[in-house]
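Lecture 7 notes: from sequence to structure.

We start with a single chain of 171 residues. Read the sequence below before looking at the structure.
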Amino acid sequence: MESAHFTDVTLRVDGTDHTVHIDNRITLLDLLREHLGVTAPKKGCDHGQCGSCTVLLDGRRATTCLGFAVAHDGAEIVTAAGLGEPDNLHPVAQAFLDHDGFQCGYCTPGQICSAVGMLDEVKSGSPSHVSDDLEDSPELTDAEIRERMSGNLCRCAAYPNIVDAIQQAAR
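Now the structure, written as C-alpha coordinates:
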Protein backbone atom coordinates (compact mmCIF):
# COMPACT_ATOMS: atom_id res chain seq x y z
CA MET A 1 0.00 0.00 0.00
CA GLU A 2 1.39 3.40 -1.03
CA SER A 3 1.78 5.94 1.74
CA ALA A 4 0.47 9.48 1.31
CA HIS A 5 3.66 10.70 2.99
CA PHE A 6 5.91 9.94 0.00
CA THR A 7 6.25 11.77 -3.29
CA ASP A 8 8.21 11.42 -6.52
CA VAL A 9 10.54 14.40 -6.97
CA THR A 10 12.51 15.20 -10.09
CA LEU A 11 15.56 17.46 -9.92
CA ARG A 12 18.40 18.37 -12.25
CA VAL A 13 21.58 18.35 -10.15
CA ASP A 14 24.88 19.42 -11.70
CA GLY A 15 23.52 18.65 -15.15
CA THR A 16 22.07 15.21 -14.34
CA ASP A 17 18.34 14.48 -14.01
CA HIS A 18 17.20 12.50 -10.96
CA THR A 19 13.76 11.20 -10.00
CA VAL A 20 13.45 9.85 -6.47
CA HIS A 21 10.59 8.59 -4.31
CA ILE A 22 11.04 10.36 -0.97
CA ASP A 23 9.41 11.10 2.34
CA ASN A 24 7.68 14.50 2.14
CA ARG A 25 9.54 15.65 5.26
CA ILE A 26 13.08 15.31 3.90
CA THR A 27 15.07 18.48 3.37
CA LEU A 28 16.68 19.32 0.07
CA LEU A 29 20.10 18.95 1.72
CA ASP A 30 19.34 15.44 2.95
CA LEU A 31 17.96 14.47 -0.46
CA LEU A 32 21.16 15.65 -2.12
CA ARG A 33 23.55 14.04 0.35
CA GLU A 34 21.78 10.90 1.51
CA HIS A 35 19.75 9.89 -1.55
CA LEU A 36 21.76 11.24 -4.48
CA GLY A 37 25.29 11.06 -3.03
CA VAL A 38 25.96 14.73 -3.81
CA THR A 39 28.33 15.73 -1.02
CA ALA A 40 29.49 19.22 -2.05
CA PRO A 41 26.82 20.94 0.09
CA LYS A 42 27.73 20.32 3.73
CA LYS A 43 25.52 19.94 6.77
CA GLY A 44 26.81 22.51 9.22
CA CYS A 45 24.23 24.01 11.53
CA ASP A 46 21.08 22.51 9.95
CA HIS A 47 19.34 25.83 10.78
CA GLY A 48 20.21 28.02 7.76
CA GLN A 49 22.70 30.06 9.75
CA CYS A 50 26.13 28.92 8.52
CA GLY A 51 25.77 28.69 4.73
CA SER A 52 27.72 25.43 4.37
CA CYS A 53 24.82 23.90 2.44
CA THR A 54 24.50 26.75 -0.07
CA VAL A 55 23.84 25.81 -3.71
CA LEU A 56 22.53 27.63 -6.75
CA LEU A 57 18.83 26.77 -6.91
CA ASP A 58 17.30 27.79 -10.22
CA GLY A 59 20.18 30.25 -10.59
CA ARG A 60 19.93 31.84 -7.15
CA ARG A 61 21.87 30.98 -4.03
CA ALA A 62 19.92 29.11 -1.40
CA THR A 63 20.54 27.18 1.80
CA THR A 64 19.33 23.64 1.25
CA CYS A 65 18.90 22.66 4.90
CA LEU A 66 15.81 24.85 5.30
CA GLY A 67 13.65 23.73 2.39
CA PHE A 68 11.70 20.55 1.91
CA ALA A 69 12.77 18.68 -1.21
CA VAL A 70 9.16 18.31 -2.41
CA ALA A 71 8.90 22.10 -2.64
CA HIS A 72 11.63 22.07 -5.29
CA ASP A 73 10.27 19.45 -7.67
CA GLY A 74 11.50 20.34 -11.15
CA ALA A 75 14.28 22.61 -9.89
CA GLU A 76 17.75 22.93 -11.33
CA ILE A 77 20.49 22.75 -8.71
CA VAL A 78 24.14 23.55 -9.22
CA THR A 79 26.58 22.68 -6.45
CA ALA A 80 30.22 23.72 -6.23
CA ALA A 81 31.05 20.36 -7.84
CA GLY A 82 28.93 21.34 -10.84
CA LEU A 83 30.79 24.60 -11.44
CA GLY A 84 33.57 23.95 -13.93
CA GLU A 85 35.77 20.87 -14.26
CA PRO A 86 38.80 19.72 -12.23
CA ASP A 87 41.14 20.79 -15.04
CA ASN A 88 39.12 23.91 -15.89
CA LEU A 89 37.85 25.46 -12.65
CA HIS A 90 35.11 28.05 -12.46
CA PRO A 91 36.70 31.53 -12.07
CA VAL A 92 35.43 31.80 -8.47
CA ALA A 93 36.87 28.39 -7.52
CA GLN A 94 40.18 29.31 -9.18
CA ALA A 95 40.26 32.60 -7.28
CA PHE A 96 39.68 30.73 -3.99
CA LEU A 97 42.71 28.58 -4.82
CA ASP A 98 44.81 31.56 -5.91
CA HIS A 99 44.08 33.49 -2.70
CA ASP A 100 43.95 30.60 -0.19
CA GLY A 101 40.27 31.39 0.40
CA PHE A 102 39.93 28.32 2.59
CA GLN A 103 41.71 26.47 5.35
CA CYS A 104 39.90 23.34 6.46
CA GLY A 105 37.65 23.57 3.38
CA TYR A 106 34.40 22.54 5.04
CA CYS A 107 32.59 25.77 4.19
CA THR A 108 34.28 26.24 0.82
CA PRO A 109 31.63 24.66 -1.46
CA GLY A 110 28.94 26.84 0.11
CA GLN A 111 31.19 29.91 0.00
CA ILE A 112 31.89 29.35 -3.70
CA CYS A 113 28.22 28.89 -4.61
CA SER A 114 27.28 31.92 -2.55
CA ALA A 115 30.01 34.00 -4.21
CA VAL A 116 28.82 32.98 -7.69
CA GLY A 117 25.24 33.89 -6.79
CA MET A 118 26.32 37.11 -5.12
CA LEU A 119 28.31 38.23 -8.15
CA ASP A 120 25.22 37.62 -10.32
CA GLU A 121 23.15 39.74 -7.89
CA VAL A 122 25.68 42.58 -8.12
CA LYS A 123 25.77 42.29 -11.92
CA SER A 124 21.97 42.60 -12.02
CA GLY A 125 22.14 45.77 -9.89
CA SER A 126 20.60 44.40 -6.68
CA PRO A 127 21.60 46.64 -3.75
CA SER A 128 22.55 45.47 -0.26
CA HIS A 129 22.40 47.11 3.18
CA VAL A 130 25.76 48.78 2.59
CA SER A 131 25.10 49.97 -0.97
CA ASP A 132 25.55 53.74 -1.09
CA ASP A 133 22.91 54.35 -3.74
CA LEU A 134 19.88 52.07 -3.96
CA GLU A 135 19.06 53.33 -7.47
CA ASP A 136 22.53 52.86 -8.99
CA SER A 137 24.45 49.65 -9.62
CA PRO A 138 26.36 48.71 -6.47
CA GLU A 139 30.14 49.11 -6.39
CA LEU A 140 31.83 45.88 -5.35
CA THR A 141 33.79 47.19 -2.36
CA ASP A 142 35.20 44.94 0.35
CA ALA A 143 32.36 46.10 2.62
CA GLU A 144 29.81 45.18 -0.06
CA ILE A 145 31.33 41.70 -0.40
CA ARG A 146 31.42 41.17 3.38
CA GLU A 147 27.77 42.19 3.70
CA ARG A 148 26.61 40.00 0.84
CA MET A 149 28.63 37.00 2.05
CA SER A 150 27.61 37.41 5.70
CA GLY A 151 25.35 34.34 5.52
CA ASN A 152 28.38 32.09 4.96
CA LEU A 153 30.49 31.46 8.03
CA CYS A 154 34.09 30.21 8.11
CA ARG A 155 35.31 28.76 11.41
CA CYS A 156 38.91 29.11 10.22
CA ALA A 157 38.40 32.86 9.65
CA ALA A 158 39.73 32.93 6.09
CA TYR A 159 37.55 36.00 5.43
CA PRO A 160 40.27 38.38 4.14
CA ASN A 161 41.34 35.77 1.59
CA ILE A 162 37.73 35.05 0.62
CA VAL A 163 37.15 38.76 -0.03
CA ASP A 164 40.34 38.93 -2.13
CA ALA A 165 39.25 35.84 -4.08
CA ILE A 166 35.85 37.35 -4.83
CA GLN A 167 37.46 40.62 -5.92
CA GLN A 168 39.68 38.63 -8.32
CA ALA A 169 36.73 36.66 -9.70
CA ALA A 170 34.72 39.86 -10.19
CA ARG A 171 37.47 41.29 -12.36
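The longest helix spans residues 108-123. Keep this in mind for problem set 3.
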